[in-house]
Amino acid sequence: MSMGDPAAFIRANTMLHEPPLVPEVKLHLASEIVPIWQMTEEELEKSGLPPPFWAFAWAGGQALARYILDHPETVAGKRVLDFGAGSGMIGIAAMKANAASVLSVDIDPFAAASIHLNAEVNGVSLNVATDDIVGSANGGWDVILIGDMCYERPLAERIETWVHSLVDGGATAYIGDPGRTYLPKSGLEKIVSYAVKTTRELEDTDVRNTSVWRVI
Ligand SMILES: C[S@@+](CC[C@H](N)C(=O)[O-])C[C@H]1O[C@@H](n2cnc3c(N)ncnc32)[C@H](O)[C@@H]1O
Known about the structure:
Layout: H1 6-13, E1 15-17, E2 27-29, H2 33-44, H3 59-70, E3 79-83, H4 89-96, E4 101-105, H5 109-122, E5 127-129, E6 143-147, H6 153-168, E7 172-177, E8 188-197, H7 200-203, E9 207-215
Parallel strand pairs: 3-4, 3-6, 4-5, 6-7
Antiparallel strand pairs: 1-2, 7-9, 8-9
Helix pairs in contact: 3-4
This protein binds S-adenosylmethionine.
């Protein structure tokens, strides 16, 4: 399988957009999911790949990024993990809100490339990793930010157990979620909700009511 050049692929197939709820952040994004998904499969000469999540600013992530920009004390001076970072939007918001450092983690190498590109566009510095760290010990993070990760049961269940162990160890964790099916039913405290503009192609609706939750 050829990995091609993810950064060149992203530059060629996306445009710089400002997510509706987070206009402070510019991201390399696609406007439709099917064409870029097909092109990713062609680039990698592989079918059945997961969607190119990194090419969209998901509603859960937009809500969490908005919350952080409006409440910089959440992350200011703190070591932050942006887990399932996708485009890197949440970590970029955290650096703009004066986080001490951000580690953006996503298992998709295209996401890693998009995070590097988007960090550069926004003039912030992010550390980026592609390991599957679910279940690992706390890597020195004070705050864990999780944007829109509850769309698949096994993943959501693994994250729930792991995040509770990190919170029990003293970290603070927030989840941004637009009502995905596998959002945990307990152990969360709702902080704020936003109406996030989205597209019918992506979400079957024009607006999603999206909440930021603190893990308790
Ligand atoms: C719906 S996207 C959300 C992206 C971003 N947080 C946002 O809100 O725009 C979910 C992301 O989680 C990543 N992901 C899935 N499983 C993962 C894992 N085990 N570790 C890290 N990232 C993972 C996917 O590659 C994808 O980029």
